[in-house]
Amino acid sequence: MAWRNLWRNKRRSILTLVSIAFGGFLAILFTAMQDRSFSDFIDTAARLGKGHVTIQHPEYLDTPTLSRTVEGASELKSFALADVDVEIVVDRISGEAMVATADDSFGVRFIAYDPEQETEETLSFQEGLVEGEMFESGRDKGIILGKKLAQNLGVEMGRKVVFTMTDKNGEIVSGLARLSGVIGTGAPSLDKGLCLLPIDVIRDLLGYEPDECTHLAVFLSDSRKSVAVADRLKGSLREATALTWDEIQPELSGFIAMKVGGARFMEIIIAILVAAGIFNTLFVSVMERLREFGIMIAIGYSSGQLFRLVMWESLWLAVMGLLTCGALTAWPYSYLVRTGLDYSAMTGGDAVEIAGVGWDPVIRVGIFPEHLLVIIVAMVFATLAAGLYPAWKAGRVEPVESIRLV
User: Fold this and answer.
1) CA nearest to 357, candidates 233, 241, 248
2) What are the helix (H) ranges across 90-177?
């Protein structure tokens, strides 16, 4: 009976279904864009810096000097890899340095890494190589500079570069290397202020032990598990601590939180508008049938049965709205998963830099299953909630008064 009642006014019911489907369509695509974009963004930030979780000296975050080190890197690495959510752990040395040529000098951030441990999954700079080659071992004699930094220094491939930093004891030390590679990340601050060095060469220069580093970068299969993994690791570490990516990069975390909050607000507004449309449909439908409801009560129907009848109509609207939403969303979602939206023409072909990380100018989607479930439940709940008052109104009909209605 509820199903038949919906189609008494086909035009009104179809418009309501379209509004439900369109609201769900917007909610799914907005959420899917956020889930995929921010997940990729966090992974890129992890690969540019210190992983999804970072094991480092407890005071390094507040005082990032090269004297705040982590010893026993191999043992810590084995310990972290024993966690079920950890995929890769690499040890690195990072800090501030000065690089100079005969023409000029600049302050930079350096990362010393072991090429035998790192892959493109842990160090994204390898994807940005524009000239020369990456290191082959931790004892290579070269240096790799950001593209803009190399231009500012006026240095060409094979030419000498002097790098200066403070060692473990606070003494100023210098090294000499020849430019072996140039990288372009698309993020201006990185391209003009980053250099890569082989880790064993830097260990010797800084007076580190063979198993000593400034931090271990821990990479996970899912960045959303960072807090849980950090808590598990932190509970067993003695002279080190484990921090999540958002603790290491608060600016990036704040940007993502702001964007997610704004999108959630818009989704709530959309949900309210859709619920208002559903309420209008059901309320008008009930008001048009007051005489009918009065007759039904007169012949033996109870108020509870009429209430359930209208709620069944709400449920049918929700079910049909979800099916319509699925049909409406399937092709655009599939297209955006495979191809995405390329707005590189608006940025001149470069990535947009946010908090020191380049944002890919191609937007793709990919919604987390739990978020999709929340949207489905919210759509059903909003539809049923919109039907509560009309259903209550139908159950409160007075037979004598309603039958008199013309």
Assistant:
1) 248
2) 147-153
Q: What is the tens place of the pLDDT at every residue in 3-30? A: 666 666 677 777 778 888 888 888 888 8
Mean pLDDT, range 353-377, rounded to an integer = 78
Rounded Cα–Cα distance for residues 287 and 293 (Å)? 10
The string over 39-78, giving b where at least 16 C-beta atoms fall within 10 Å of a residue's C-beta and e elsewhere, is: ebbbbbbbbbbbbbbbbbbeebeeeeebbbbbebbeebbe
Beta bridge partners of 182: 131, 145
SS3 state at 356: coil
Q: Is 242 helix (H, G, I), strand (E, B) or coil?
A: strand
User: Cα–Cα distances in Å, from 148 out to 57, 242, 349?
Assistant: 32, 33, 16
If you search the block for the tokens 């108020």, which residue do you land on?
A: 303
- Distance CA(126)–CA(144), nearest Å, equals 11
Q: Collapsing DSSP states into helix, strand and coil, what is residue 224?
A: helix
